[in-house]
Design brief:
single chain, 106 residues, mainly alpha, 3 helices, 70% helix
């Protein structure tokens, strides 16, 4: 049985090769995240929140206007549904922006 033992007892010792490998893997992951743009200088959760606010400001009113225009064309109610759904899109966008602004940036 002593001959089949691979030489590692598994007691409280860490293999320095594995520790070194883990450090190099962590450094490589961090470098890759910076290269891919997931984490960069000045680009964190605050940058992401700014993009979310911008998308709400654009998407809410535009989405409401498009759906309102389509429904106006379908039902023949010229600007009524367009204006109503665009106003609803603006209200929803501002509500979402208020929710976003309540989150901590970091």
């Amino acid at each position: 049985m002593g001959n089949d033992d691979p030489g590692q007892d598994g007691l409280d010792r860490e293999d320095p090769r594995i520790t070194s490998l883990n450090k190099r893997l962590d450094a490589a992951k961090r470098d890759e995240a910076i290269k891919s743009g997931k984490v960069g200088e000045g680009q964190g959760k605050g940058y992401s929140q700014g993009n979310r606010v911008l998308s709400q400001l654009i998407g809410g009113p535009v989405g409401g206007a498009v759906i309102g225009w389509l429904l106006d064309r379908l039902f023949g109610t010229s600007p009524v549904l367009l204006l109503a759904l665009m106003a609803l899109g603006i209200v929803v966008a501002f509500r979402n922006i208020i929710r976003i602004s309540g989150e901590r940036p970091e």
